[in-house]
Amino acid sequence: MALRTAASNVSIERRSPFSSQAIPKLRAEKELESRELTQRNLKLEAELRSLEPLRQDALQLRSEAGTLQSLRQELTAKVQGLTKELEHQNAESQRIPAMIAERDSLRQELIRARTALDYEKNAKPDLMARVQAVENDLVTMAQESEKLRAELEKRRAPSMSRFLS
Question: Between 20 and 30 A from 85 (CA), which of 1, 25, 60, 103?
Answer without folding.
Answer: 103
